[in-house]
Amino acid sequence: GESVGLHLPTLSVQEGDNSIINCAYSNSASDYFIWYKQESGKGPQFIIDIRSNMDKRQGQRVTVLLNKTVKHLSLQIAATQPGDSAVYFCAENRNNNDMRFGAGTRLTVKP
Amino acid sequence: DGGITQSPKYLFRKEGQNVTLSCEQNLNHDAMYWYRQDPGQGLRLIYYSQIVNDFQKGDIAEGYSVSREKKESFPLTVTSAQKNPTAFYLCASSATRQAHLHFGNGTRLTVT
User: Fold this and answer.
1) pLDDT, tens digit, for every residue of A55-89?
2) A13-34 confidence digits (pLDDT tens)
3) Chain B 13-52, CB below 8 Å of chain A: which residues?
4) A71 three-state secondary structure
5) Cβ neighbours for B38, distance < 8 A, ≥ 6 positions apart
6) What is the rounded distance in angstroms from the CA atom of residue B66 to the CA atom of residue B78?
7) CA B2, B24, A96, B52 torsion-angle sign
8) A90 interface with B at CB cutoff 8 Å
9) Of the N and C termini of chain A, which has fewer Cβ atoms inside 10 Å?
């Protein structure tokens, strides 16, 4: 079964609000986690990553939080814009470059 | 520009035929991957390769085959044994173990 999963399949937010997308993983040996954004008809694009020796990492308007105790990963998007509308996937890197993805969350930004 | 090229973007085949999807990268990455994506679902790993002439099965390898004769190329063959081949296929590569994947824009395969 899936070792990486998401709590909510869809998320709708108002433009300008902050968005939080959650992800649960079950493989305690995973040591590297990534968030991707996928627009319709395209391949996923890298957003931000975090290694297991960290619990927070910030990028431009995005923050990833890692809670190893409960095996939980989240992506925070500040001041969400219409261009942020997409499907967001978390992924975990197990050993030997084995990269597994969750089911994804569709983010819709309302004007 | 460096990147992953998948071709063709759309592919149509009759049931019972084998079909090969192309994936080429000019990023000089060692690792390459094939994923399958069904509507409204996540990415499921078919095969991955860490180095030339070596590859490992993912979760759904049955009915698929790959080869890795060159570093820059990782073609995927969807055989007639694959029971539900219609899907969106994504190829990716990565530089090292703890590095994110670079994806192509996919091939949408329809088998009728």
Assistant:
1) 999 999 999 999 999 999 999 999 999 999 999 99
2) 999 999 999 999 878 889 899 9
3) 31, 33, 35, 41-45, 48, 50
4) coil
5) B44, B87, B88
6) 9
7) negative
8) no
9) N
